[in-house]
């Protein structure tokens, strides 16, 4: 069957719920015309995961980075990049969780 | 928050959400560039600002990132808050007054968070640069914006403003440097509502007295009011004489005449333009009651000599320190060099408010009591008027403004001294300027030179974008209102000659080296030709 979806704020949502059989696949592909897509909002394209992820950020003595590493403790590590869209989605999710009681 | 550091550039960095999160979580390829920029802010090399409404997003992004890694919401929340607190140690909030959403409805774009950043930064900062990874700022906003990597690679000076008009006294830069303190102080007054004689009045008086070393400080409605109240406290009567300089702002003589007394003008020194102490004693008569030396252009007169003359003849000395708050004379602060001193907080003064204001200083208990009472209609206690007084109080709001400016004042004085010394060096041997005596400092309320063909020079400098001013073009004994009401002792030819030659150049604590060099280059070009 064909399902109708609405793409809003970067997310696809079914207009009517579909209830699948337990053994049915859960991933489906949709095709969106390329000219309907906005360009990425990020200034510079970043590699999906920098090679040195999970290492502690290098810091000079007395530097701000040293202070941040100290505050972060075991969580002081280089992390993969996130796009503007990723951030937007994360904040949306946080808001939804907070205000919709999800 | 350090407001006292000299910035290397006149731009103000405004940090977007994504860059702050990159820096705080070491995220992506360019996080180190973001951290480096924040480091520059922390070290006072450039101003760093944030829009308050972005902090919620920063917080959630931090909290989510740490929660995913630790599986512990409490740890994630605490860490996010700790990092934000660290950031707010050195970043300043863009002020919001509450009507911004109404104002941005006509701006192009649909992202309220970004539109608000544009609106706030362009409303409050003279030369903002948004630090962001978001292309929207580059392509759609009216603000300058750049990726942290680009700023680090090109250097901050690539965004420096160029060719802007040079203000004669730069109050704009000063204001945005202390904007958070100003708003905090002014909001405090709005909340407690004690607009007259509120707690800020006593707080300011205490701080100013401590700064100068005088026992008492009495804030008043203006520098003129300060002089008037001082003379009233001395009981100056009609027909009595007060010795002063003719080369000053009219208020110095105006208050004498207002009380029916007679200003007796004594000539000035040709190199400092201050009253010539060696000529005062000859002007003293049986009617003389006081001497008012003016610390012109921010430099005290020869106060030891003047105080000694006054002591010999039983006179009172009132330092007219309207231009010299912050200056020193033999290691003592201006406003604590004589029995009474009066200063002004006119906005362009070295320490100014946002309207009229002034202060009187004295270590004499009786005079201080009298001046406090005269300030409030001669009132000893509520509705008991034991003297004739005036309505001369300084508004609480203006005191709140000066309190905010005081937080930066030491740095500003230091800057004024440096800028004055740099002018001296650049003009040395080419343009004659007002001399600073080695036993005192000037806070350079004006930086003044002696210029022939002054009007022509001013016109040509104006065309070159360099504003100038004349303090003062006509000595007071030649002013129409004073020709008949004053005395001139022994001729005041130096004052008359200097009035035709003095010309002041742009001067303020925030005058950049680049602008100062522009001023001097233009001046030397004009004077040479």
From TrEMBL, chain B:
SUPFAM superfamilies listed in its UniProt record: PIN domain-like (SSF88723), PLP-dependent transferases (SSF53383)
Taxonomic superkingdom? Bacteria
InterPro entries the record matches:
DegT/StrS_aminotransferase, PIN-like_dom_sf, PIN_dom, PyrdxlP-dep_Trfase, PyrdxlP-dep_Trfase_major, PyrdxlP-dep_Trfase_small
Keywords, A to Z, come to: Aminotransferase, Pyridoxal phosphate, Transferase
Claim: Transferase is one of the keywords in the record: yes
An example molecular function term from Gene Ontology annotations: transaminase activity
User: Where is each PIN domain found?
Assistant: 13-121
Database matches in CDD domains: AHBA_syn, PIN_VapC-like
Q: Which GO terms describe its biological process?
A: polysaccharide biosynthetic process
Of which family is this protein a member? Answer: Belongs to the DegT/DnrJ/EryC1 family.
What protein name does the entry list? DegT/DnrJ/EryC1/StrS aminotransferase
Q: Which organism is it from?
A: Accumulibacter regalis
